[in-house]
Structures are given as C-alpha cells and as structure tokens.
C-alpha cells in the first residue's frame, strides 16, 4: 500500500528538478560511492524563489551532498543565464538585490567542491515585487438568511509569479459564468501557497454554519487532474486540508463545495488556500448560512491491501456518515474519476475493489456522505493488485533523488519520487547506472518497490548507506523481470539506491517510481 499526503504536496515547479550527471568512480558489481572523492557534487535540487516587497528575490534550495559552495547564475530570458555566476555562497540560499521591477529573472544554481562544478539545477524564475494584497473586509451581502461574499472582495495572499501565463497568482479575472457583479472571480490555480481570505464574516450567534464555495475549474495545464483538494482555515484553525472540489469540466461552469464549521458570534475570519500546485482555478462566491444539520466528518487512515486482481480498502469512520463514496483513478495523484466506483453503507469501513488488472497502479480516496452533504476527502493511497504490500508511508515520496546520469531534461531523477506515473527517470544508455534517494534520516528499510518503464534492469542491486559512500547490498538479482517489482528487504540507511549493472534493452534504465517503505 502506498500513501500520498496531499497536504504536504510540493509546488509543481519544484518537482520539475534536474538530476545530477556525476561520473562513476568505479564500474562493476562492487558498491561504487554515490559521490566519489575527486568528482563534482550532483546538481542542487528544489530551487525556489520568493519575491519580496522590497523588490528583492530570495532564492533557496536543498543542501547538496558533497558541496562546499554554490554558484548562482541569472538571466532575463529562459535559458539565458550568463556564463559567469553573479554570486557564490557557502549556504543554500541567496538574496538578489537591485532588481528591475519590469523584468522576469531566471536562475540556475550549481554546486561546487574540490572535484569541480555540478550540472545546473532546474531553472526557476520570478518577478518582483509581488502584488500587495488588499481587501477582505467588505461585509457580506444579505440573501435570505445567508450572507454572500464575493471573491473579488477577498484578501489575496501567497502570490507566485507564473511565467507560462506571465502573471501573478492568485489573480482576479473575468468569467462569463460568474454571479459576482462585474463578473470578476479569483483564479488561484498556479499558486501553490495561494490564499483568499474574508476577515469580516459577521454572524449573530455562535454555532454551526455552512460555508458554500461556488467554484469552477477545467484540467487546464494539469491534464488528468480531476480533484483539487483545498485547505479551509477558520479563525486561525485549520479545519481540513482535503475539502472536496471535483472538476466542473470548464473554467466557466460552476458548482458548489460546502462544509459545516463552528463560527463565533460577531466577526470571523475564513481562508481558503491551496494545498499543492494544482490549486483551485476559480472561486466566485462564498455563501455563509446557519446550518440545520451537520455534514459528516471525513474518514481517515485509509489503507489498502493488494490481492490478485483486487484491492481491499479499510478506513476509520467519519462521524455522521450514512454512506461512503469510494473514488478510484489509474493515472496520477488527484486523478480519481469524479464518479465514485462504489457506495458503501455508513455502518461499514471496508470495501474490496475487484476486476482490476494486476501490475496496474490504482489511486483511491474515500469521502463520507449524509443527507446534508459530503465530507472532506480521506488521505489518498495508491497500490498495485497482484503485488504484496506493507502498510505504511512511502519514505521516498518527494524526497531528494540523485542519479548517475539522465537521458535528458525531461527525465530527471526527481521524477521517480514525485508520486506521479506520468513522469519518469531515464539514464544514459550505458552500464552501470544508479538512482539514489535521500530519506533525510536513517530508517529501517523493509520494502522497495520499482515501477519500471519498458527500459528495465536485468541485473541490479538494491543498496543502503548511512553516508552515501559505504554501501550494503540488501537485494541482488541477475534475472530482473521489469514491470512492477515489489522487493522485501532487510536493512537500514539514510540513502537507498538501485544500482543497475546490466540493461535488459538497448536503452538506459527507466523508472516511473522508486518507493521505499519501512520505519
């Protein structure tokens, strides 16, 4: 069973990182160090940029193993960074000053040690300064016993420059389907930390209220994404990070997502925020109404056990549930179909999904229902029928990944740990090659799952290490089968790698996903 935490989801631009292209120090079946003495460090990962009100840009990236310093390169067009670095720093951060407020700035970082300079990081860009958020204090408009708050009046925050559309998000734009006067809605789809806040939600008495968001989104730049769970914060308290926002099919076709919350008598603050780079495309209105009954609370602790052609799901009950909807997808995270594949009675907390294809990865979440409405979603899991599985968290999910080589910019090492089966790591077409993940701390390793693309390893080892230099082999084969390989192992380490010594095809090694389970 494989678990994804959407609330901890990373920005898409930070997931699209380039892997290292380091020289191997040794060839053969022995454990070659990941970063041998005398060789450059790997490329820095997870470059991110924060635009500041003082017209500076703050850059940060992950500490790179083996690096003693970093070079910062800057340009004003994609791929146009100068050949000479603008700065060198010994820490994984840099604040760039004296910038022009009308230009886009593009950056790459390299890591340096006595062995030389690494390949470049993935490129990131931004403008500065960000917009100044205003609003949030407009009183609601009375409508029967309800109050309506227009998206255009919200206080926007968490701005991020999105170069593809040359704009800051969240932003206001026109929508033909809007009910808001003037047709202005909030679009926050491309801001991984975007927020919209109403700080003047005034109700006469304390109690239970329904918060109803009128929203719209199509898949846009995220093909296959059918759900965009959002975070709801009331008076500074996170109510949920998985409020249910199914795709509406169009940026101008609206529907509703509602949740019951407790509000204080008098003034309240309500914030809707993104939990990952998918965001929510457009929000038209928030309607606040006294609640006569409670929607169920969300189910939790969803787990799955894979059988031959089947997956059995179990979860912790949501209070007030009269039934549960089970949602399934087989493409990417957030790609579950908007129509549930099963309805389970509220007295049950288990479901077995049958008729599945062995070796195919399926994504699931569960939501509770009653006559009042639908709950927030459970956690999302993904699992493959026909493969044995351990319950637990994928320790490698979104962890830093490094590789001996990459086939090209579109197949970085990080693609094998991003939780998506739409991206992959692919190496150069030579032997040996390796893919390594940094778990961040020493763990007990019980299981490694390899999801091979058609270019797989015939002979390879799974190795663990505490320092990235001294390796212990915990699994070895010369008869690799490709497909999905679920390997039971026993070992400990901070670093885990696939060390391939013989390719099964004339191409390099290629993995859709590299997963690690343990404690």
Describe the protein.
The strands form eight sheets. Strands 10, 11, 15, 16, 18, 21 and 23 form a seven-stranded antiparallel beta sheet that branches. The chain contains one helix and 38 strands. By secondary structure, the protein is mainly β. Among the domains are: 141-290, Jelly Rolls, CATH 2.60.120; 300-383, Sandwich (Immunoglobulin-like); 401-518, Jelly Rolls (Sandwich). Residues 1-32 have low confidence and may be disordered.
Unreliable residue runs: 1-32
Can you tell me the CATH architecture of the domain at 141-290? Sandwich
Largest sheet: 7 strands, antiparallel
Estimated structural class = mainly beta
CATH homology superfamily of the domain at 141-290: Galactose-binding domain-like
Strand content is over 45%
> What is the number of helical segments per DSSP (H or I, 4+ residues)?
1
**Structural shape:** globular
Distance between the termini: 14 Å
What top-tier CATH class of the domain at 141-290 fits best?
Answer: Mainly Beta
Enter the CATH topology name of the domain at 141-290: Jelly Rolls
Q: What is the number of E strands?
A: 38
> Radius of gyration over alpha carbons?
24 Å
Helix fraction? under 10%
- Mean pLDDT, to the nearest integer, reads 87
């Amino acid at each position: 069973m494989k678990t994804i935490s959407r609330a901890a989801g990373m920005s898409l631009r930070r997931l699209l990182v380039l892997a290292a292209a380091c020289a191997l120090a040794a060839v053969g079946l022995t454990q070659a160090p990941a970063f041998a003495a005398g060789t450059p460090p790997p490329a820095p990962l997870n470059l991110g940029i924060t635009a500041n009100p003082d017209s500076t840009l703050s850059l940060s990236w992950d500490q790179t193993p083996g690096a003693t310093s970093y070079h910062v390169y800057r340009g004003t067009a994609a791929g146009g960074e100068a050949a000479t670095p603008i700065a060198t720093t010994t820490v994984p951060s840099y604040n760039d000053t004296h910038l022009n407020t009308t230009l886009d700035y593009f950056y790459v970082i390299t890591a340096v040690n006595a062995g030389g300079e690494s390949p470049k990081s993935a490129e990131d860009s931004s403008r500065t300064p960000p917009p100044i958020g205003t609003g949030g204090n407009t009183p609601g408009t009375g409508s029967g016993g309800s109050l309506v708050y227009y998206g255009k009046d919200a206080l926007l925050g968490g701005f991020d420059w999105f170069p593809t559309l040359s704009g800051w998000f969240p932003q206001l734009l026109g929508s033909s389907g809007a009910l808001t006067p003037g047709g202005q809605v909030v679009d926050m789809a491309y801001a991984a930390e975007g927020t919209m806040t109403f700080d003047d939600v005034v109700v006469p008495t304390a109690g239970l209220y329904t918060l109803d968001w009128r929203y719209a989104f199509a898949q846009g730049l995220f093909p296959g994404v059918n759900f965009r769970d959002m975070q709801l914060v009331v008076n500074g308290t996170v109510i949920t990070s998985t409020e249910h926002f199914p795709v509406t099919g169009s940026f101008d076709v609206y529907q509703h997502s509602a949740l019951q919350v407790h509000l204080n008598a008098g003034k309240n603050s309500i914030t809707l925020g993104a939990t990952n780079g998918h965001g929510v495309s457009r929000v038209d209105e928030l309607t606040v109404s006294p609640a006569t009954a409670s929607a169920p609370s969300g189910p939790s602790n969803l787990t799955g056990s894979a059988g031959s052609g089947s997956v059995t799901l179990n979860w912790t009950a949501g209070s007030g549930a009269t039934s549960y909807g089970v949602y399934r997808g087989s493409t990417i995270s957030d790609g579950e179909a908007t129509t549930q594949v099963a309805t389970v009675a509220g007295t049950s907390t288990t479901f077995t999904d049958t008729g599945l294809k062995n070796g195919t990865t399926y994504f699931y979440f569960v939501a509770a229902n009653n006559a009042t409405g639908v709950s927030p979603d459970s956690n999302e899991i993904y699992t493959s029928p026909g493969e044995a599985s351990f319950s637990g968290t994928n320790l490698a999910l979104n962890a830093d990944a490094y590789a001996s080589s990459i086939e090209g910019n579109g197949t970085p090492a990080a693609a094998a740990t991003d939780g998506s089966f739409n991206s992959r790591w692919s190496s150069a077409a030579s032997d040996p090659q390796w893919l390594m993940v940094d778990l961040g701390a020493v763990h007990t390793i019980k299981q490694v799952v390899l999801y091979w693309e058609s270019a797989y390893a015939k002979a390879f080892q799974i190795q663990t290490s505490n320092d990235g230099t001294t390796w212990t082999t915990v699994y070895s084969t010369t008869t690799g089968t490709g497909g999905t390989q679920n390997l039971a192992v026993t070992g400990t380490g901070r670093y885990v790698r696939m060390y391939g010594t013989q390719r099964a095809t004339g191409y390099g090694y290629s993995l859709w996903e590299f997963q690690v389970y343990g404690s």
